[in-house]
Design a protein that fits this description.
The chain has 128 residues and is of the alpha+beta class. The chain contains five helices and three strands. It has a domain at 43-128. Helix content is 41%, strand content 11%. The protein is globular and about 35 Å long.
């Protein structure tokens, strides 16, 4: 399996997932975009949007016909902030939409690091 390099500014986000033909370089969150008034749910969605906008992703195991449809839903949920926490958690469940896309698109290790690191509290049922 490939190497995972950490972004020193954000130890929970893998920049590179190597190994195999589907290896991909994932974008690093831009710390300048971090708004102190942004909710934790919005931060998670921003990281997801950054990844989803970075290239082609396989949605064949989801209800979405395209990544564009998922991006539109995430943007709608982002506008609701923490009120959308339950819906965002549902999308992020193991074998849920985001997990399926991450696995089939080659960025499951990066996804795992986000869910067990930076966004662990947001994805907890106790959040919000």
């Amino acid at each position: 399996m490939g190497e995972i390099e950490e972004n020193p500014a954000d130890a929970g986000f893998a920049l590179f997932v190597g190994g195999g033909p589907r290896a991909s370089r994932l974008p690093s969150p831009d710390p300048r975009r971090q708004n102190p008034s942004m909710s934790p749910v919005q931060s998670l969605i921003d990281d997801l949007l950054l990844i989803l906008r970075s290239g082609d992703h396989d949605t064949s195991w989801t209800r979405y016909e395209s990544v564009g449809q998922l991006i539109a839903e995430l943007e709608r949920l982002r506008a609701r902030g923490d009120d959308a926490a339950a819906e965002v958690r549902r999308l992020c469940l193991p074998t849920g939409v985001i997990d399926e896309i991450a696995v089939s698109s080659g960025w499951s290790e990066a996804w795992l690091r986000l869910t067990t690191g930076k966004h662990r509290d947001v994805l907890s049922p106790q959040h919000g």
